[in-house]
Design goal:
The structure holds 2 protein chains of 2 kinds. Chain A is of the alpha+beta class. Chain A has 19 helices and 41 strands. In chain B, strand 7 and strand 8 form a beta hairpin. Classes of the chains: A alpha+beta, B alpha+beta.
């Protein structure tokens, strides 16, 4: 909503400057988005008298003018044919910037004669299209006076962001009313125009859709002349951002901007029969004033005559019956449309307009009569003509809304103590009627007010939110308890552990291109209105985003990428917290000590997974390594980690080369996903650890080397050994794996270091032999043979 | 000079002259070995009379001690010299680079969320979460934004295509079977709109977590709800996905003054300055009444806007007293319970605090950016150590 200050002052009696007005608007909730003064670029230009005009000695078409703009005569070279001695014009001195061209004026010699500025045309000042010659001002314009001041152009335009609840402030008058209530001035009383009709309205007006159009007022004005609207009106419309079209159209726009009240003017000659507000028929079409054809449905209200639809009610008029220069008889319509109906129609047609914006927010149902008279008055004044009687079809919804208010609420809800009298006067100045026992009647233009809290807001915003006293929240007794849930705490630990291990945390889009979602099992959720096809499907895995990020980093010259992200995967039935890891490129760069660069392999992914699971509190010793990591992994270099066969905690491994290729990643890429929501959370309340005192006796180690079939999983062998004598064996660790010379074809040699912890006394040779036999037996069960 | 003194002088000078451990050993053997000169003298003590021994004993033993000490000292000296020589040959160029550990980092958004959690924990706010794939009721209707409400135009909402795969309401049991996981709590509950299939969307704000919290737990309530939100908007200063944090207090006797204090306290703690000033402006949000927009004073330092001071105001938060219709929609009695809610952008807070100027870079995963603006793993925000890093 944009308007010049002068328009506001038509309704508000105030001496306030534009800055004071803006401050007040911000304070009461009408946010000022900008103040622009069209006079600002013109301040340097002054009223000047041409004292003398002589021909330029070197050029036929130029003259030498002696110009006085208040500071004594200066010479100006001028090419305008109308420049002559004795005239009054507009002078731009050196240093001024010509608005139309952006050129700075300089003292310069033109064909050998000094020129100290320029006499300007209105076109050069961007004030009109008249290029014919320099502007001619009346002789009584005082020389030296600022031109904008003389011309009354010094009229700043204020732009206000009106929140959707304040339809009443989508007109200048409503803003004036709010400012008056805030004490910035006095609201001038509106004189009630009455335009008497001298004949019966020749058109039948009805509403057949009282739900969508409860009230439809109209009248005809005959014999109008629809030329251009007057300059003052055009200036205001332009300032408000409306293009002047013709007097009749401009008048309806002017009333809309002045009072927030849309209306419509039909060319009577284009109408046949009764003009009726009714539901559209399904499939019925209308060409609107924007020259687009809209197909309507029976959910929509229209204004139609016998021939067809002339107005998408409350949204946009029809092209056929719009007013033109040839219009001589006009039908003025001012109606009340149901806000929800307008909103739904506008949404369905995807059509926005100034009228819709106002109607769907709910215009003042009490303004129809006044609005029509005001419209009529302007038409008669500007276009002439003779008015008919007014026809009023239907009744606007005027049942008053009464709210039982409790003035104490301004302090108990609003946090500002305001005495009752002040509250009453604020509400009254905003148009509320405060009755006995604080029965507050809401004015017809405040559809947004429907409860006591709204009244609190009215009082508090006018009093000023700076009066809200900062009040500490009551503090709970005792020491603070954790406020994060166990899963949130787990998430933090995993994040910090990953960063500590050298991984960089990224945040990637939650949506993916469909092909990428498909490559990771397919997405269950597709957007209907994505920003682009690249952001269409909710990710079923975090890896795609990380791989794309890895690709972008490689494109920027990165040689080593370690990225992780903690976020949700979106499955058909849930959103699951997941940690994704991608490592690509060099694991370590070439260096003076080791020579060549090293590369990531599947075990690096395994190491990250185990470390992060461990940080999350999982006893990783007991996890099962199983297959089925997914088709995006290398089938022979990937695995899952499970807690029991069903609870999948993580998948990791080398990325399938085909998958890597779809992301343009070369070389080995390793990846992992940890399903954080599958990790069992620590039960609350258990802070005590299991009892423990370090053993008095030193642990001893024994090494065993076995020949095993190469198909045997080393993990199975180690697990078997670890578990064969729980009383004595506290650890079993694979420390060598060898195939080749000395090892039969199809077999590998695995060496395991077993750690034994004696309890009360040191082991005897016999005891060690017994344990050793158990280890060998357990290994043999796995198909291993002790090496000699 | 007696023979013994002469011998001592000879041996000591031989020790002195020894230049290697081997030659020293030869001297030792010659003096103290079985056949050594000193050993021979010691042997003579046995044949002496007690009187002679009384005189000669100390002299000969003294000789042995002097020689032994001199050899030990010389040996230590030779070894030290040898060690020095070896160490001199082991000199490394200490300017050569040490093995590098990869340098990880925590994303600024995560860091700021942890900071906020810390600050609000001190004020007794728990951390609540909700689904990002929301239903219409929680995202709009329950927040007093009916379908025809003009405020819906303020949200550029992403909607989902209906799909036979989706059956969130019906799959709760399956999810519960998988144990204690977040997914259970993230499932949209069936709304009071009769459980009919609702249009699913990506939440446009964290405000639906207000509804989920109020319908799931009894007041008094103090929560913050950080998380991803989505709007169909993409330009230099908007990304289709970003982060918000919501705050909600529902209790008895809560008013705008409490809201103001809470925001002041939070912003002062977050920006670690006492000169953070707030300007409340009346505004409009469908789910609060009165609604308040909060501007924060800033100053300009080296051409950058820094929170604190009062050279200008910038809009940072939206807030207000929770609308009675919202409280009612959650099944609470607005006559008994009232409170405030606020929301702000986490990415924006991070930018204002740490000086990033491009929102889009937050979601690009550029390692150079992550390392520059990211945080060390151990920069864990704490109240005792400060929430900024």
């Amino acid at each position: 909503m944009k308007f010049p200050l002068s328009w506001l002052k038509d309704y508000l009696d105030t001496d306030a400057t534009v800055e004071q007005v803006a401050d007040c608007l911000n304070r009461i909730g009408l946010e000022v988005e900008g103040i622009e003064n069209p006079a600002d670029p013109l301040r340097a230009f002054r009223v000047a008298k041409v004292m003398r005009a002589n021909p330029h000695p070197q050029a036929d078409k130029l003259q030498l003018l002696l110009v006085d703009a208040g500071d004594g005569p200066v010479q100006v070279v001028c090419g305008a044919p109308n420049a002559r001695a004795g005239m009054t014009g507009i002078f731009g001195p050196a240093g001024a910037i010509v608005p139309a061209t952006g050129m700075e004026l300089k003292v310069t010699a033109i064909r050998g004669e000094m020129s100290n500025g320029m006499m300007c045309s209105l076109a050069e000042l961007a004030l009109g299209d008249d290029h014919e010659g320099i502007a001619e001002l009346p002789d009584d314009a005082p020389k030296g006076m600022s031109y904008v001041e003389w011309a009354g152009l010094d009229d700043p335009v204020i732009e206000v962001a009106v929140t959707p609840n304040r339809q009443d402030c989508m007109g200048v008058y409503g803003i004036a009313r709010d400012l008056a209530a805030a004490g910035l001035g006095t609201l001038k009383p509106l004189k009630t125009p009455v335009v008497a009709g001298s004949y019966k309205c020749p058109v039948e007006i009805r509403t057949d859709d009282p739900e969508g159009c409860p009230a439809f007022y109209g009248r005809v004005i005959r014999g109008v002349k629809n030329g251009a609207s007057p300059d003052w009106m055009q200036a205001r419309l332009r300032a408000a951002g409306q293009r002047p079209i013709s007097a009749l159209v401009d008048i309806t726009n002017y009333v809309m901007l002045a009072f927030g009240r849309p209306a419509h003017a039909y060319d009577l000659a284009r109408l046949t029969g009764a003009v009726v507000a009714r539901r559209a028929r399904d499939g019925e079409q209308v060409m609107a004033l924007n020259d687009k054809v809209y197909t309507l449905s029976s959910e929509m209200t229209v204004i139609a005559d016998d021939a067809g639809v002339h107005d998408i009610a409350g949204i946009m008029g029809g092209a056929h019956s719009g007013c033109s220069e040839t219009t001589s008889d006009v039908l003025l319509e001012i109606a009340y449309f149901d806000p929800e109906r307008i909103a739904k129609t506008g949404q369905a047609l995807m059509l926005t307009s100034d009228a819709r914006t106002r109607f769907e927010r709910g215009v003042d149902p009490g303004f129809l009569g006044y609005g029509l008279e005001y419209l009529s008055e302007l038409v008669l004044e500007i276009c002439g003509g003779v008015a008919s009687e007014i026809v009023k079809a239907g009744t606007p919804p005027l049942e008053p809304r009464v709210i039982q208010f409790v003035p104490m609420l301004t302090v108990t809800l609003g946090g500002v103590a305001v005495d009752d009298d002040r509250q009453k006067s604020i509400l009254t100045s905003l148009g509320f009627h405060v009755g006995a026992d604080w029965q507050v009647t809401v004015p017809t233009w405040r559809r947004d007010i429907d409860g006591p809290a709204d009244l609190v807001e009215e009082v508090v915003r006018i009093v000023g939110l700076e009066h809200v006293v900062s009040t500490p929240l009551p503090r709970a007794d005792g020491v603070a308890r954790p406020t994060a849930t166990p899963l949130q705490r787990l998430e933090r630990k995993v994040r910090r552990a990953a960063a500590a291990r050298g991984l960089n945390e990224a945040i990637n889009w939650s949506f993916l291109p469909k092909a990428q979602a498909d490559a990771f099992g397919g997405g269950a959720w597709s957007l209907e209105n994505p920003i682009s096809e690249d952001m269409k499907v909710m990710r079923p895995s975090l890896l795609a985003g990380l791989l794309s990020a890895a690709r972008r980093n490689m494109d920027r010259g990165a040689t080593s990428v370690r990225l992780f992200e903690i976020g949700r995967r979106y499955l058909a039935d849930s959103e699951r917290l997941t940690c994704g890891i991608v490592m690509a490129g060099e694991k370590a760069p070439r260096g003076w000590a080791s020579g060549k660069a090293t590369w990531f392999d599947a075990y690096d992914a395994k190491a990250e997974v185990l470390a992060l699971l461990s940080a999350a509190g999982v006893a990783t010793d007991g996890l099962m390594v199983m297959d089925e990591a997914g088709s995006h992994y290398h089938p022979g270099q990937s695995a899952t980690l499970r807690m029991g066969p069903k609870n999948l905690l993580a998948a990791f491994g080398t990325l399938h080369p085909a998958t890597a290729r779809t992301f343009d990643l070369e070389g080995t890429v390793v990846a992992a996903e940890i399903y954080l929501d599958a990790i069992p959370l620590k039960k609350a309340g258990g802070l005590m650890r299991a009892p423990f005192s370090p053993p008095a006796l030193q642990a001893v180690t024994r090494d065993f080397a076995f020949l095993v079939p190469e198909t045997l999983a080393a993990g199975d062998l180690v697990r078997a050994i670890r578990g064969c004598d729980r009383d004595n064996i506290v650890a079993a660790r694979l420390f060598d794996r060898f195939a080749g010379q000395g090892v039969p074809e199809g077999q590998v040699s695995l060496a395991v270091e077993v750690t034994l912890q004696p309890a009360e006394k040191s082991y005897t040779e016999d005891e060690l032999k017994t344990i050793s036999d158990r280890v060998i037996a357990a290994a043999e069960k796995q198909g291993a043979v002790l090496r000699g | 000079m007696s023979g013994i003194e002469k011998l001592e002088t000879e041996i000591l000078s031989a020790i002195e002259a020894a230049s290697t451990p081997d030659s020293l050993e030869a001297v030792r053997i010659a003096a103290l070995g079985k056949q050594g000169s000193v050993s021979a003298l010691l042997k003579t003590l046995g044949q002496m009379t007690p009187e002679e021994r009384q005189v000669q004993g100390p002299v000969i033993n003294g000789l042995r001690e002097a020689v032994t000490n001199a050899i030990a000292a010389k040996k230590a000296g030779l070894e030290a010299a040898l060690l020095d020589e070896r160490l001199a040959s082991e000199r490394l160029d200490m300017t050569l680079p040490a093995p590098e550990a990869p340098c990880g980092s925590v994303h600024p958004v995560s860091q700021v969320m942890d900071e906020l959690a810390e600050i609000f924990a001190d004020m007794g706010f728990a951390i609540a979460e909700g689904p990002e794939i929301e239903d219409d009721w929680h995202n709009f209707s329950a927040l007093n934004i009916p379908e025809t409400h003009p405020a819906r135009a303020m949200h550029d909402t992403f909607y989902f295509q209906p799909s036979p795969l989706q059956g969130r309401g019906g799959s709760r049991e399956a999810a519960e079977g998988e144990g204690e996981s977040i997914s259970t709590s993230l499932l949209p509950t069936l709304s009071p709109e009769g459980g009919r299939a609702q249009r699913m969307l990506l939440r446009t704000h964290t405000s639906p977590v207000q509804i989920r919290t109020m319908t799931a737990q009894e007041p008094p309530i103090r929560i913050i709800a950080p998380g991803r939100v989505y709007r169909s908007d993409s330009d230099a200063t908007h990304t289709p996905m970003f982060h918000q944090i919501e705050g909600l207090v529902i209790d008895k006797g809560i008013h705008l003054g409490h809201l103001k204090w809470t925001l002041e306290t939070f912003l002062k703690a977050f920006f670690e300055r006492d000169d953070v000033s707030l300007r409340l402006r009346p505004s409009y949000f469908p789910f609060t009444e009165p609604s308040v927009e909060v501007d924060v004073g800033y100053s300009v330092v080296n051409g950058r806007r820094v929170i604190g001071g009062s050279e200008g105001w910038m809009e940072v938060l939206g807030s207000g007293m929770v609308h009675r219709k919202v409280i009612e929609a959650c099944g609470l009695d607005p006559g008994e319970w009232q409170g405030f809610a606020f929301g702000t952008g986490v990415d924006r807070l991070a930018m204002l605090k740490y000086g990033m100027d491009d929102l889009r870079a937050f979601f690009d995963g550029d390692l150079r950016w992550l390392r520059h603006y990211g945080f060390n793993a151990l920069d864990i925000p704490t109240l005792s150590g400060g929430v900024g890093a």
